[in-house]
Amino acid sequence: MSFTALAMTLIFVLLPLILSKTLSLGLEKDTIIATVRSIIQLMVVGYILKFVFEAEHPVYILLMVLLMIGAAVENVRKKGLFIKGITWKVGATIIFIEILTQGILIGLNITPPTAQYIIPISGMVIGNAMVLSILFLNRFTAEIEAHEDETELILSLGGTPKQAIHTQLISSIKASMIPTIESQKTMGLVQLPGMMSGQIIAGADPIQAVMFQLLIVFLLLTTAAISSVMLGFLSYPSLFNERIQIIHLKK
Q1: What is the DSSP secondary-structure string of 133-199?
Q2: CB distance 169 to 110 below 8 Å
Q3: Residue 89: phi, psi to the nearest 5?
Q4: How confident is the model over 141-187, as pLDDT tens digits?
Q5: Is the pTM of this model over 0.85?
Q6: What does 99-122 look like in DSSP terms, one character per residue?
Q7: How far, in Å, are 30, 64, 109, 118, 247 from residue 103 at the CA level?
């Protein structure tokens, strides 16, 4: 694709701007900011990846993965400030998922240990873990606030923090996993996933593209499960003080 062709695709940004202005949605500024940021960020990343792929040095690969993890942790952290130690808990969760998935892929020779495979797959895994963590924290916050009286009642009757928060925790884990599971049910029927579509556009054999996409589908399912469960069980003890009283949320 030439830069001229890319510039012409801005018509897809112009249409939302017109609709926002016409319907007084007030989204013009956010749309422009999002467009400019996406252009700058993706172009910068594109040149960085070009350098990393050509260098093919483990240090550059590690730095790129750490950069993605750091950005993801910072984004999730803002949604869970009410949880003590949320930064290291999110970081531990995402790092564990990254090590587990790459360990299986490289250890079983499913994918080669090269930047061309490690960085894109890590980006999808880390990005999905970030989104799932945000979904979990949003739902967990709502569940805790909605059932605070019930939680305090269980504690007053001698229940443990785990017993008091169990229903809200499980409900939040399930709610955060549902979008991933439901999207996989209609994959190939309602949508053609990005990785598969990209490979087909690049001229890859459709069957090979499908096989790589299935790899990502299975990875994201594991990511969804581990992100919600691990972050949930690391987070809930922080909601109680030393007297086993629930701490009122301050968002």
Answers
A1: HHHHHHHHHHHHHHTHHHHHHHHHTT--HHHHHHHHHHHHHHHHHHHHHHHHHTBTTTB--HHHHHH
A2: no
A3: -70, -40
A4: 888 888 778 877 887 888 787 888 888 889 888 988 888 888 887 77
A5: no
A6: HHHHHHHHHTTSS-SSHHHHHHHH
A7: 39, 17, 10, 11, 38
